[in-house]
Design a protein that fits this description.
The complex is a heterodimer of chains A (about 300) and B (about 375). Chain A has a single domain, classed as Orthogonal Bundle (ABC transporter involved in vitamin B12 uptake, BtuC), CATH 1.10.3470. By secondary structure, chain A is mostly helical. By secondary structure, chain B is mostly helical. Chain B has a domain of about 240 residues. Helices cover about 70% and strands about 5% of the residues of chain B. In chain B, a hairpin with a 2-residue loop joins strand 4 and strand 5. Chain B is globular, with a radius of gyration of 22 Å. Chain B starts with a helix and ends in a 13-residue tail after the last helix. The chains are: A mainly alpha (about 300), B mainly alpha (about 375). At the A-B interface, helix 4, helix 7, helix 8, helix 9 and helix 11 of A face helix 6, helix 11, helix 13 and helix 14 of B.
């Protein structure tokens, strides 16, 4: 039983990070119908910038929490600027091009950012300093650390703020209108291009936070970390129903739970034939399963026939 | 270089759609003498690169059937290459003590890869566009993860170490891994492989050209342009789409088998997502659906980065006195940049078919305000 509970806790931590990244995918897809392949790399840049700031300021003897806050304050604007540039130079000129063009362009940006990061930070894995004291709580035999509690709480808070932003503010209303129909939204006086840019920027801010969380929880940052993370977050977005904000949050949490429970029990289920190193397969199996049986995702409408 | 320029001028012969016979002869002589010239002037490294370029031509043509002809965006294509390569590796290596001959493995590899193509195609028939891209990408990753981990509890693929000491391509007792004595001259191993790959690539080009103008090829084009209309015209879209996946996969399987025989070593590392992306980029950058364009794309994307890798470090050395940037990552950096720029300025590819060029230029030159996104529905 405690293993089950432990995997649930691990799954929630992983899931809240997926959810934060998935929001970036889903918001952009909702408005542009574009898979922003480079979003995972934005997370990676966020994590690595945060790492650099923290290691640079570590000798000053500042409390680690303040350090993490400062790192986030630098990483978030860097990611936002990056996302702005990506949207402006790699996607916007291609809005009328055939569907494949922005996708290839996004892959190009992704490769570009990975290699830039490799040039700046090198090929090695960078381990994060400890942000919070290593306190663990005991629940029915399962352990949850302070860092994990804070991660889950912070992700929940951020998502609540985002939900408020989208449902209750005029900016959110403009975003929803643009997602519904950009041409009509423009006629209603909404500056569609600025809304699109803002969507990218908000997604990037969430990505920076997610990057810091990945670094803090799994204590590694690496130039290649964005790819798999991005792919899984995208899976989470599809699972929840792409374009749907609540769906992305739900999908992220679910995927995190599926992965950690799956990795914990796959050996028992297959009689030891498949081990926990097959963890990465679950995301793809879920993805294929969702798209085949319920292409709209859990909370989305039917979209599979879109060309 | 001068010869190449003259040849290209012939290709552009404006008043005839087919090439002059002189151009064919020049092309034939060029292809036949290429390995000797390159081997003599640039050495074996470039001869190997040339051989890989031919393998990529085969792969790109295979993917072109799925993406270019039928309009199905497949991002896990390298999985079929992996299937072909691993099948060869398992059936002709000390791994299981099997040493099957070429004529048994290659058709089997093609068939098994084709079967995998259908396996991938069947559940994804309803999906289109981006969704198909992501599912196929996931499929490719699943194959790679299995290859990486199927070493325990039963050792099949030997895990991340891969399979080594694979039998080279051989015809009877004549092995292509050693220089072949022809009586009047000896054929170096790399040159022999070049001719084998050239023959295979030419065969695949011929099949692709015939497919394009066949009944099935026209059905693919119809599905690509408008699936609903194609169905209304009586095309069995399910079978025709599955056939596209199977045909494309078959080409990949053959190329994979040849790769395993040539390299004599396979490991999951060679079949990552980046390879799939690379092949897709060859097709898209060259000009989707246009066979000469796809061949050009494959050659450019294999040769240019290598060329760049070989000049980047010496150039930095002579300009600044030391190597600032690792040439390997600089190469990939420029590759990414090139993808973005080509899509920005030539979304139909470098050498598209005239028809496609017109269509895309039409889309891009509409009077619609450029800042409004196209409504996705």
């Amino acid at each position: 039983m405690d293993i089950f509970l432990q995997q649930i806790i691990n799954g929630l931590v992983l899931g809240s990070i997926y959810a934060l990244v998935a929001l970036g995918y889903t918001m952009v897809y909702g408005i542009l119908g574009l898979i922003n392949f480079a979003h995972g790399e934005v997370v990676m840049v966020g994590a690595l910038v945060a790492y650099s700031i923290m290691t640079a300021l570590l000798p000053t003897g500042m409390p680690p929490v303040l350090l993490a806050l400062l790192a986030l304050l630098v990483a978030a604007p860097v990611c936002m600027g990056l996302a702005w540039a990506i949207e402006r130079y790699a996607y916007r000129p291609l809005r009328h091009a055939p569907k494949l063009a922005p996708l290839i362009s996004a892959i190009g940006v992704s490769i570009l950012l990975q290699n830039l990061a490799m040039m700046i930070w090198g090929r090695s894995y960078h381990s994060f300093p400890d942000i919070l004291p290593a306190i663990t709580y005991d629940i029915n035999g399962a352990h949850i650390s302070l860092l994990q509690v804070v991660t889950i709480a912070l992700a929940a808070l951020t998502m609540a703020v985002l939900a408020w932003l989208i449902q209750r503010t005029s900016l959110g209303q403009a975003m929803r209108a643009t997602a519904e129909n950009p041409a009509i939204a423009e006629l209603m006086g909404i500056p569609v291009n600025r809304i699109i840019t803002l969507t990218f920027i908000i997604g990037a801010a969430l990505a920076a936070l997610a990057g810091l969380m990945v670094g803090a929880n799994y204590s590694v940052a690496h130039y290649y970390m964005g790819f798999m993370l991005g792919l899984k977050a995208f899976t989470a977005a599809v699972l929840g129903g792409i374009g749907n904000i609540t769906g992305a949050m739900l999908g992220g949490l679910l995927l995190g739970l599926i992965e950690s429970l799956g990795a914990g029990y796959i050996a028992d289920l297959t009689g030891g034939f498949l081990g926990s190193h097959y963890q990465d397969i679950f995301a793809f199996l879920v993805l294929i399963g969702v798209l085949v049986f319920r292409p709209g995702g859990l909370m989305g409408e039917r979209v599979s026939e879109r060309a | 270089m001068k010869m190449a320029g003259r040849f290209l001028a012939r290709l552009r012969n404006p008043n005839g759609s087919s090439m002059h016979w002189v151009a064919w002869v020049v092309l034939g002589v060029l292809l036949a003498t290429m390995p000797w010239i390159i081997g003599a002037s640039f050495g074996n490294t470039w001869l190997r690169i040339l051989n890989f370029a031919l393998l990529y031509v085969m792969l790109a043509l295979g993917l072109n059937i799925v993406v270019g002809f039928a309009g199905l965006l497949d991002m896990g294509y390298i999985a079929f290459y992996a299937v072909g390569a691993y099948l060869w590796a398992l059936l002709a290596s000390p791994q299981f003590g099997l040493h099957w001959p070429l004529w048994a493995i290659l058709p089997l590899g093609a068939a098994v890869a084709g079967l995998f193509g259908v396996l991938l195609g069947a559940p994804t028939l309803k999906l289109r566009g981006d969704y198909l891209a992501i599912v196929t990408l996931g499929f490719g990753e699943i194959i790679r993860i299995f290859l990486n981990n199927l070493n325990a509890p039963v050792n099949i693929t030997n895990g991340p170490q891969g399979i080594s000491a694979i039998d080279p391509v051989h015809f009877g007792s004549v092995s292509l891994a050693r220089p072949i004595d022809l009586g009047f001259t000896t054929l170096p191993s790399l040159v022999a492989y070049y001719y084998l790959f050239l023959v295979a690539a030419l065969l695949i080009i011929a099949i692709a050209l015939r497919l394009e103008s066949s009944r099935v090829g026209r059905a693919w084009a119809a599905i690509r342009e408008d699936e609903v209309a194609a169905k209304a015209c009586g095309i069995n879209t399910r079978n025709v789409k599955l056939l596209a996946f199977a045909m494309g996969a078959t080409f990949g399987g053959v190329a994979g088998g040849l790769f395993a025989g040539f390299q004599q070593f396979v490991s999951p590392e060679s079949f990552g997502l980046l390879e799939s992306v690379m092949v897709l980029c060859m097709v898209v950058l060259g000009g989707m659906g246009h066979i000469p364009g796809v061949i050009l794309g494959a050659l450019l994307l294999t040769l240019l980065p290598e060329f760049f890798r070989h000049i980047a470090a010496p150039l930095q050395q002579s300009l600044f006195g030391k190597v600032f940037v690792d040439p390997e990552s600089l190469r990939m950096l420029l590759f990414g940049l090139a993808l973005v720029l080509v899509m920005r300025y030539r979304p139909s590819g470098l050498w598209p078919s005239p028809q496609r060029r017109r269509e895309i230029d039409d889309v891009l030159n509409t009077d619609a305000p450029a800042d409004l996104p196209v409504n996705p529905t």
